[in-house]
Specification:
Length: about 350
């Protein structure tokens, strides 16, 4: 039994399409996903604005609120909470050049409209957080945007969301690249700086995703630790990644057990979850998986978290302290290897 409460998004169960091939599994209705999430032990759901309210661009603000209310009732039916709402600022033609940092004023206004509607939806779902995965906030052609001006625009966008709702928290999910080449906010350090520069730093934090940290050439556990030291780890997206390639969103721990252990250790050691934080699993199902077996990657990830919690609980702090005192880190390393392989 895990000490954590888990969350996933509807996009974590998909039809298997990738950049090179179409869907191979039938679409599963939102309600059926909720039912299954609840059955496998998920506590809360993460949403993009249009996961909760499809065709959001065609609806008025009031209609959007009305649709969101229906989703709240559906969550209630399965005993689920909502963790966050994230404006999807990368699909619409208005966001081809980014949202908050597009060179077009009209597109930037569209991004803010989606961000405000996301807050409206979050209120209805009783979600406390807006997540900004800044998908296209950066450049494909480095010279196409003014980087100084655009970092300021990111801070202004965060401030506008904070102004719009005095209770909402903004969690930025950094990623160094993909779909853009160079992000204006690639790492947890950048998120901490934006939070500090915002008008209400206490309401701005980070969602740290394992794969995104690896893509930045950084250690996910250390990135989590960095946020924790500022009291700003609002959520995590646990998953795994085989080196520097496309964002793979593999099940947690399937590539590096030591890295998985260190991520869970830093969360456990610092009481993560005690202030209501969830453990998000941003994992993608393999395209080869059969319909009906397409929650296995989520089940596997939860199991890997549990296994690593057991290792953390068995971790001999006294032995570690002695190794450190003797400055025999080689001895400590063997201890870790034995712990992780037995
Ligand atoms: C993209 C990613 C997103 C965010 C939510 O890499 O991780 O799914 O987690 O917008
Ligand atoms: Mn993510």
């Amino acid at each position: 039994m895990s000490r954590f409460r888990f969350t996933v998004g509807p996009w974590n169960v998909n039809e298997g399409l990738d950049a090179f091939g179409p869907a191979v599994r039938p679409t599963i209705a939102l309600e059926e996903k909720f039912r299954k999430f609840s059955e496998i032990g998920i506590s809360a759901v993460q949403f993009h604005d249009d996961d909760a309210v499809p065709n959001i661009n065609d609806l008025s603000s009031d209609e959007i609120i009305e649709e969101a209310r229906k989703v709240r009732l559906l969550l209630d039916r399965y005993g689920l909470e909502a963790e966050f709402v994230a404006p999807r600022l990368w699909m619409d033609p208005h966001t081809a050049d980014g949202g908050f940092t597009s060179n077009s004023k009209e597109d930037r206004d569209f991004a803010m409209w989606r961000a405000f509607r996301s807050v409206d939806i979050a209120r209805q779902l009783r979600a406390k957080n807006i997540v900004l995965w800044l998908a296209r906030e950066g450049t494909l052609c480095a010279e196409s945007k003014n980087p100084v001006e655009n970092v300021k625009r990111l801070i202004e966008a965060v401030n506008s969301i904070l102004d719009y709702d005095p209770d909402i928290r903004v969690l930025i999910e950094p990623k160094p690249n993909e779909p853009i080449d160079r992000s204006f906010c690639p790492t947890a350090g950048h998120v901490m700086a934006i939070a500090a520069a915002s008008k209400d730093p206490d309401r701005v934090g980070c969602v740290l995703e394992s794969a995104h940290a690896i893509l930045a050439g950084l250690d996910p556990a250390d990135e989590m630790a960095f946020c924790l030291s500022f009291g700003k780890l609002g959520s995590v997206h646990l998953n795994d990644q085989n080196g520097l390639r496309y964002d793979q969103d593999k099940a947690f721990g399937v590539e590096s057990i030591r890295s998985a252990f260190n991520q869970i250790k830093v969360l456990c050691d610092n009481g993560y979850g005690k202030n209501g934080e969830y453990v998000g699993l941003d994992v993608k199902c393999m395209r080869t998986q059969k319909p009906g077996e397409d929650y296995q990657h989520i089940i596997n990830s939860m199991r890997m978290v549990e296994i690593m919690e057991e290792k953390v609980d068995r971790f001999d702090n006294e032995y570690c302290r002695k190794c450190v005192e003797e400055r025999n880190y080689e001895k400590l390393e063997l201890y870790i290897m034995e712990l992780l392989t037995h």
